[in-house]
Amino acid sequence: MAIELHSLTKRYGDICAVEDVSLTVEQGEVFGFLGPNGAGKSTTINILLDFVRPTAGRASIFGIDPQEDPRAARERLGVLSEATGFYERDTAREHLEFAIAMKRADDDPQALLERVGIADAGDRAVGGFSKGMRQRLGLAIALVGEPDLIILDEPLGGLDPTGAQTFRNIIREERDRGAAVFFSSHIMDQVEAICDRVGIMNDGRLVAVDTVEALRTMPEVPFELSVTLDTVPDRIQDDLLCLDGVEAVSTNDDVLRVGCADASAKADVITLLDDTEAAILDVRTGEPSLEQVFMETAVEGPCA
Length: 304
Description:
Layout: E1 3-12, E2 15-25, E3 30-34, H1 41-48, E4 56-61, H2 70-74, E5 77-80, H3 92-102, H4 109-116, H5 131-142, E6 149-153, H6 161-177, E7 180-184, H7 188-194, E8 197-202, E9 205-210, H8 212-216, E10 223-229, H9 236-241, E11 246-252, E12 255-260, H10 264-274, E13 280-285, H11 290-297
Parallel strand pairs: 3-7, 3-8, 5-6, 6-7
Antiparallel strand pairs: 1-2, 1-4, 8-9, 10-12, 10-13, 11-12
Helix pairs in contact: 3-4, 4-5
GO molecular function, one term: ATP hydrolysis activity
Pfam families: ABC_tran
Keywords: ATP-binding, Nucleotide-binding, Transport
Protein backbone atom coordinates (compact mmCIF):
# COMPACT_ATOMS: atom_id res chain seq x y z
CA MET A 1 0.00 0.00 0.00
CA ALA A 2 1.17 3.51 -0.76
CA ILE A 3 -0.60 4.94 2.32
CA GLU A 4 -2.01 3.20 5.37
CA LEU A 5 -3.69 5.05 8.22
CA HIS A 6 -4.80 3.09 11.28
CA SER A 7 -7.03 4.77 13.90
CA LEU A 8 -5.16 8.03 13.37
CA THR A 9 -5.99 10.68 15.96
CA LYS A 10 -4.60 14.14 16.62
CA ARG A 11 -5.71 16.36 19.46
CA TYR A 12 -4.62 19.84 20.46
CA GLY A 13 -5.77 20.03 24.06
CA ASP A 14 -9.55 19.75 23.96
CA ILE A 15 -9.67 20.26 20.19
CA CYS A 16 -9.89 17.13 18.07
CA ALA A 17 -8.36 17.79 14.64
CA VAL A 18 -8.36 14.16 13.44
CA GLU A 19 -10.26 11.34 15.12
CA ASP A 20 -9.85 7.60 14.53
CA VAL A 21 -9.17 7.85 10.79
CA SER A 22 -8.35 4.63 8.96
CA LEU A 23 -7.87 4.33 5.21
CA THR A 24 -5.58 2.87 2.56
CA VAL A 25 -4.39 4.20 -0.79
CA GLU A 26 -3.02 1.75 -3.32
CA GLN A 27 -0.13 2.25 -5.69
CA GLY A 28 -1.37 3.47 -9.06
CA GLU A 29 -4.47 5.07 -7.51
CA VAL A 30 -5.64 8.68 -7.53
CA PHE A 31 -7.31 9.39 -4.19
CA GLY A 32 -9.22 12.62 -3.57
CA PHE A 33 -9.33 13.85 0.02
CA LEU A 34 -12.29 16.18 0.51
CA GLY A 35 -13.72 18.22 3.33
CA PRO A 36 -14.63 21.74 4.42
CA ASN A 37 -12.09 24.04 6.02
CA GLY A 38 -11.05 22.68 9.40
CA ALA A 39 -12.15 19.13 8.57
CA GLY A 40 -8.72 17.65 9.31
CA LYS A 41 -7.38 17.21 5.78
CA SER A 42 -4.19 19.24 6.19
CA THR A 43 -3.52 17.79 9.63
CA THR A 44 -3.73 14.28 8.19
CA ILE A 45 -1.34 15.23 5.40
CA ASN A 46 1.04 16.87 7.87
CA ILE A 47 1.13 13.64 9.89
CA LEU A 48 2.03 11.71 6.73
CA LEU A 49 4.84 14.21 6.11
CA ASP A 50 5.99 14.01 9.77
CA PHE A 51 5.36 17.72 10.25
CA VAL A 52 2.93 16.80 13.03
CA ARG A 53 3.01 13.81 15.37
CA PRO A 54 -0.26 11.93 16.00
CA THR A 55 -1.79 11.65 19.46
CA ALA A 56 -2.75 8.04 18.73
CA GLY A 57 -2.80 5.59 15.86
CA ARG A 58 -0.22 5.32 13.12
CA ALA A 59 0.51 6.24 9.53
CA SER A 60 2.79 4.56 7.02
CA ILE A 61 4.06 5.21 3.50
CA PHE A 62 4.91 2.02 1.63
CA GLY A 63 5.17 0.34 5.01
CA ILE A 64 7.54 3.01 6.37
CA ASP A 65 6.57 4.89 9.52
CA PRO A 66 7.49 8.54 8.80
CA GLN A 67 8.07 9.11 12.52
CA GLU A 68 10.65 6.33 12.74
CA ASP A 69 12.37 6.82 9.38
CA PRO A 70 11.38 10.17 7.86
CA ARG A 71 14.23 10.19 5.34
CA ALA A 72 13.24 6.81 3.87
CA ALA A 73 9.61 7.94 3.65
CA ARG A 74 10.47 11.23 1.97
CA GLU A 75 12.63 9.50 -0.63
CA ARG A 76 9.43 7.93 -1.96
CA LEU A 77 7.48 11.21 -1.90
CA GLY A 78 6.78 14.22 -4.05
CA VAL A 79 4.92 16.98 -2.20
CA LEU A 80 3.04 20.14 -3.08
CA SER A 81 2.03 21.75 0.21
CA GLU A 82 -0.67 24.39 0.48
CA ALA A 83 1.89 26.54 2.29
CA THR A 84 4.75 25.95 -0.16
CA GLY A 85 7.33 28.70 0.15
CA PHE A 86 9.61 30.00 -2.58
CA TYR A 87 12.70 32.17 -2.68
CA GLU A 88 11.31 35.33 -4.25
CA ARG A 89 14.56 36.34 -6.00
CA ASP A 90 15.36 32.90 -7.39
CA THR A 91 14.08 31.78 -10.77
CA ALA A 92 11.80 28.82 -11.41
CA ARG A 93 14.73 27.01 -12.99
CA GLU A 94 16.90 27.58 -9.92
CA HIS A 95 14.16 26.19 -7.67
CA LEU A 96 14.00 23.05 -9.77
CA GLU A 97 17.79 22.69 -9.92
CA PHE A 98 17.88 22.88 -6.12
CA ALA A 99 15.09 20.27 -5.77
CA ILE A 100 16.87 17.96 -8.22
CA ALA A 101 20.13 18.28 -6.29
CA MET A 102 18.42 17.66 -2.95
CA LYS A 103 16.83 14.47 -4.30
CA ARG A 104 20.02 13.42 -6.09
CA ALA A 105 17.89 13.00 -9.21
CA ASP A 106 18.79 13.53 -12.86
CA ASP A 107 15.66 15.30 -14.09
CA ASP A 108 15.94 17.94 -16.80
CA PRO A 109 14.68 21.27 -15.39
CA GLN A 110 13.63 22.44 -18.85
CA ALA A 111 11.55 19.32 -19.43
CA LEU A 112 9.78 19.82 -16.09
CA LEU A 113 9.10 23.49 -16.86
CA GLU A 114 7.64 22.51 -20.21
CA ARG A 115 5.56 19.76 -18.67
CA VAL A 116 3.78 22.12 -16.27
CA GLY A 117 3.46 24.89 -18.86
CA ILE A 118 5.83 27.59 -17.56
CA ALA A 119 8.87 27.05 -19.80
CA ASP A 120 8.68 30.65 -21.05
CA ALA A 121 8.96 31.90 -17.45
CA GLY A 122 11.73 29.56 -16.35
CA ASP A 123 14.33 32.26 -15.97
CA ARG A 124 12.11 34.81 -14.26
CA ALA A 125 12.22 35.48 -10.52
CA VAL A 126 9.40 33.69 -8.72
CA GLY A 127 8.55 36.88 -6.84
CA GLY A 128 6.76 38.06 -9.98
CA PHE A 129 4.74 34.85 -10.44
CA SER A 130 0.96 34.69 -10.12
CA LYS A 131 -0.59 32.17 -7.74
CA GLY A 132 -1.36 29.85 -10.63
CA MET A 133 2.25 29.97 -11.87
CA ARG A 134 3.47 29.20 -8.35
CA GLN A 135 1.14 26.20 -8.24
CA ARG A 136 2.58 24.96 -11.55
CA LEU A 137 6.11 25.38 -10.23
CA GLY A 138 5.18 23.57 -7.02
CA LEU A 139 3.79 20.69 -9.06
CA ALA A 140 6.99 20.53 -11.11
CA ILE A 141 9.02 20.31 -7.88
CA ALA A 142 6.72 17.53 -6.61
CA LEU A 143 7.43 15.55 -9.81
CA VAL A 144 11.22 15.60 -9.35
CA GLY A 145 12.72 12.12 -9.15
CA GLU A 146 9.58 10.28 -10.34
CA PRO A 147 8.23 9.74 -6.81
CA ASP A 148 6.18 6.66 -5.98
CA LEU A 149 3.67 8.76 -4.04
CA ILE A 150 2.64 12.33 -4.83
CA ILE A 151 0.87 14.29 -2.08
CA LEU A 152 -0.82 17.50 -3.17
CA ASP A 153 -2.54 19.81 -0.68
CA GLU A 154 -5.11 22.01 -2.45
CA PRO A 155 -3.17 21.98 -5.74
CA LEU A 156 -5.93 23.54 -7.86
CA GLY A 157 -6.08 26.90 -6.13
CA GLY A 158 -5.27 29.76 -8.49
CA LEU A 159 -5.19 27.61 -11.62
CA ASP A 160 -7.04 28.85 -14.70
CA PRO A 161 -8.89 26.31 -16.90
CA THR A 162 -5.77 25.63 -18.96
CA GLY A 163 -3.74 25.07 -15.82
CA ALA A 164 -6.39 22.76 -14.39
CA GLN A 165 -6.38 20.71 -17.59
CA THR A 166 -2.58 20.47 -17.46
CA PHE A 167 -2.85 19.32 -13.85
CA ARG A 168 -5.39 16.63 -14.73
CA ASN A 169 -3.29 15.34 -17.61
CA ILE A 170 -0.16 15.14 -15.46
CA ILE A 171 -1.98 13.30 -12.67
CA ARG A 172 -3.30 10.75 -15.16
CA GLU A 173 0.19 10.30 -16.59
CA GLU A 174 1.65 9.76 -13.14
CA ARG A 175 -1.05 7.23 -12.28
CA ASP A 176 -0.33 5.39 -15.53
CA ARG A 177 3.36 5.38 -14.57
CA GLY A 178 2.34 3.52 -11.40
CA ALA A 179 2.53 6.36 -8.87
CA ALA A 180 -0.11 6.89 -6.21
CA VAL A 181 -1.57 10.39 -6.02
CA PHE A 182 -3.20 11.68 -2.83
CA PHE A 183 -4.62 15.16 -3.05
CA SER A 184 -6.94 17.35 -1.05
CA SER A 185 -9.32 19.75 -2.71
CA HIS A 186 -12.64 21.50 -2.36
CA ILE A 187 -13.11 21.90 -6.15
CA MET A 188 -15.59 19.09 -6.72
CA ASP A 189 -15.76 18.98 -10.51
CA GLN A 190 -11.99 18.52 -10.76
CA VAL A 191 -12.02 15.72 -8.18
CA GLU A 192 -14.93 14.06 -9.94
CA ALA A 193 -13.06 14.11 -13.25
CA ILE A 194 -9.86 12.45 -12.10
CA CYS A 195 -10.15 10.40 -8.90
CA ASP A 196 -10.40 6.64 -8.64
CA ARG A 197 -11.67 6.93 -5.07
CA VAL A 198 -12.68 9.72 -2.73
CA GLY A 199 -12.59 10.15 1.04
CA ILE A 200 -14.72 12.81 2.70
CA MET A 201 -13.60 14.32 6.00
CA ASN A 202 -15.75 16.35 8.36
CA ASP A 203 -15.00 17.56 11.86
CA GLY A 204 -11.95 15.34 12.09
CA ARG A 205 -13.74 12.16 11.04
CA LEU A 206 -13.64 10.22 7.80
CA VAL A 207 -17.36 10.06 7.00
CA ALA A 208 -17.28 8.34 3.60
CA VAL A 209 -14.80 6.48 1.38
CA ASP A 210 -15.63 4.94 -1.99
CA THR A 211 -15.53 5.45 -5.73
CA VAL A 212 -17.32 8.52 -7.04
CA GLU A 213 -19.86 6.24 -8.74
CA ALA A 214 -20.61 4.36 -5.52
CA LEU A 215 -20.92 7.56 -3.48
CA ARG A 216 -23.50 8.87 -5.94
CA THR A 217 -25.71 5.88 -5.24
CA MET A 218 -25.68 6.26 -1.44
CA PRO A 219 -29.31 6.02 -0.30
CA GLU A 220 -29.22 9.33 1.59
CA VAL A 221 -28.02 11.38 -1.41
CA PRO A 222 -30.76 13.44 -3.13
CA PHE A 223 -31.48 12.99 -6.83
CA GLU A 224 -34.00 13.98 -9.50
CA LEU A 225 -36.45 11.48 -10.96
CA SER A 226 -37.78 12.24 -14.46
CA VAL A 227 -41.00 10.41 -15.37
CA THR A 228 -42.56 10.67 -18.83
CA LEU A 229 -46.33 10.11 -18.84
CA ASP A 230 -48.90 9.86 -21.63
CA THR A 231 -50.77 12.61 -19.79
CA VAL A 232 -50.07 14.50 -16.58
CA PRO A 233 -52.92 14.02 -14.05
CA ASP A 234 -54.50 17.02 -12.37
CA ARG A 235 -53.17 17.85 -8.89
CA ILE A 236 -50.41 15.27 -9.25
CA GLN A 237 -47.82 17.79 -8.06
CA ASP A 238 -49.69 18.34 -4.80
CA ASP A 239 -50.14 14.59 -4.31
CA LEU A 240 -46.45 13.89 -4.88
CA LEU A 241 -45.37 16.64 -2.49
CA CYS A 242 -47.32 14.87 0.24
CA LEU A 243 -44.99 11.86 0.00
CA ASP A 244 -42.15 11.51 2.49
CA GLY A 245 -38.83 12.26 0.83
CA VAL A 246 -40.25 14.30 -2.06
CA GLU A 247 -38.85 17.82 -1.94
CA ALA A 248 -39.86 19.39 -5.27
CA VAL A 249 -42.06 18.64 -8.28
CA SER A 250 -42.19 20.38 -11.66
CA THR A 251 -43.72 19.58 -15.03
CA ASN A 252 -42.55 20.21 -18.58
CA ASP A 253 -45.17 19.07 -21.08
CA ASP A 254 -45.58 15.35 -20.33
CA VAL A 255 -42.48 15.02 -18.14
CA LEU A 256 -42.63 15.12 -14.35
CA ARG A 257 -39.42 16.07 -12.54
CA VAL A 258 -39.43 14.96 -8.93
CA GLY A 259 -36.68 16.00 -6.51
CA CYS A 260 -36.19 13.19 -4.00
CA ALA A 261 -34.34 13.50 -0.70
CA ASP A 262 -33.20 9.89 -0.84
CA ALA A 263 -33.53 6.68 -2.84
CA SER A 264 -36.40 5.34 -0.73
CA ALA A 265 -38.76 7.95 -2.19
CA LYS A 266 -38.44 6.58 -5.73
CA ALA A 267 -40.65 3.54 -5.17
CA ASP A 268 -43.36 5.65 -3.51
CA VAL A 269 -43.40 8.08 -6.44
CA ILE A 270 -43.79 5.27 -8.98
CA THR A 271 -46.48 3.56 -6.88
CA LEU A 272 -48.50 6.76 -6.64
CA LEU A 273 -48.25 7.35 -10.38
CA ASP A 274 -49.26 3.75 -11.09
CA ASP A 275 -52.44 4.38 -9.09
CA THR A 276 -53.47 7.18 -11.45
CA GLU A 277 -54.97 6.79 -14.89
CA ALA A 278 -51.76 8.00 -16.53
CA ALA A 279 -49.43 5.53 -18.22
CA ILE A 280 -45.73 5.71 -17.38
CA LEU A 281 -43.77 5.78 -20.65
CA ASP A 282 -40.23 6.31 -19.30
CA VAL A 283 -38.41 6.67 -15.97
CA ARG A 284 -34.95 8.16 -15.62
CA THR A 285 -32.89 8.89 -12.54
CA GLY A 286 -30.62 11.92 -12.65
CA GLU A 287 -27.14 11.22 -11.34
CA PRO A 288 -26.26 13.39 -8.34
CA SER A 289 -23.04 15.37 -8.55
CA LEU A 290 -20.12 14.82 -6.22
CA GLU A 291 -20.92 18.21 -4.72
CA GLN A 292 -24.37 16.93 -3.71
CA VAL A 293 -22.73 13.86 -2.16
CA PHE A 294 -20.30 16.11 -0.33
CA MET A 295 -23.05 18.35 1.02
CA GLU A 296 -25.01 15.35 2.30
CA THR A 297 -22.09 13.53 3.93
CA ALA A 298 -20.08 16.48 5.28
CA VAL A 299 -22.67 17.35 7.90
CA GLU A 300 -21.24 19.34 10.79
CA GLY A 301 -21.21 17.67 14.19
CA PRO A 302 -19.18 17.71 17.39
CA CYS A 303 -15.90 15.88 17.58
CA ALA A 304 -16.12 13.71 20.68
